[in-house]
Write a structure and sequence with these properties.
Blueprint lengths: L1 H16 L6 H6 L6 H21 L7 H5 L5 E2 L2 E13 L2 E11 L6 E8 L6 H4 L8 E3 L3 E8 L2 E8 L4 E8 L3 E8 L3 H9 L3 H5 L3
Antiparallel strand pairs: 1-2, 2-3, 3-4, 4-9, 5-6, 6-7, 7-8, 8-9
């Protein structure tokens, strides 16, 4: 069964890096740098967690109402328009989600914030596949990179021309916080993340 999970992870890495469908010239021109050893280690870790979850049964996820309490009242000045939450399960996986929508009056600036508890299961392979690779890419129009924000693995992507981007962090190989914005600066996305208490999230069970 572990081989099955590793196979899924390998597919995720291939899709993210895009190596499978590119010519040698395109590969040479690609600015993203992928660390194979880190990717393999992450794949093995997630595969082991998924196998353990299958043996022990689903982990009870945090009540989505507790996750909703971590949603900031505003996103660096953008008022919150809606806050929702839900718990869902399928194929042995249970996921709790809290979501906040933030926007200015005319909707030209918008931020969506999601806090997801995947219970440390194989669902993370889809929610945080970026955590299995290293990317550091920069162009005239923006950037894409993985790294760390505080103690947590992170993914950042931003397009200067369109003023849209994304920041995501993985907390304790269980929680995924994702912030996506349109018509906003990269600094506003980062400021919104700073208003989420990641340490409190890490302590939830």
């Amino acid at each position: 069964m572990k081989l099955h999970y590793i196979g899924v992870c390998c597919l995720a890495v291939a899709l993210l890096t895009g190596c499978g469908g590119k010519s040698e010239e395109e590969k040479a021109a690609e600015e993203a740098k992928v660390s194979v050893s880190d990717a393999v280690n992450s794949m093995q870790q997630m595969a082991e967690q998924a196998e353990e979850a299958e043996k022990n049964g689903p982990v009870e996820t945090v009540d989505f109402r507790a996750l909703k309490e971590l949603l900031p009242a505003d996103a660096d000045g953008l008022p919150r328009k809606e806050a929702t939450g839900e718990k869902a399960g399928a194929m042995g996986f249970k996921i709790s989600t809290a979501s906040g929508e933030y926007a200015n009056a005319d909707g030209t600036e918008r931020i969506d914030l999601d806090i997801v508890d995947a219970g440390g299961t194989g669902a993370l392979m889809g929610l945080a596949a970026w955590s299995m690779i290293d990317v550091d890419k920069e162009t005239e129009n923006g950037y894409e990179r993985t790294g760390k924000i505080g103690d947590y693995k992170s993914y950042e992507k931003y397009d200067n021309a369109n003023k849209d981007g994304e920041i995501a962090v993985l907390v304790k190989n269980r929680f995924v916080v994702t912030i996506k914005g349109n018509g906003v600066s990269a600094e506003k996305l980062k400021a919104t993340l700073e208003d989420v208490d990641l340490d409190k999230l890490a302590g939830m069970k």
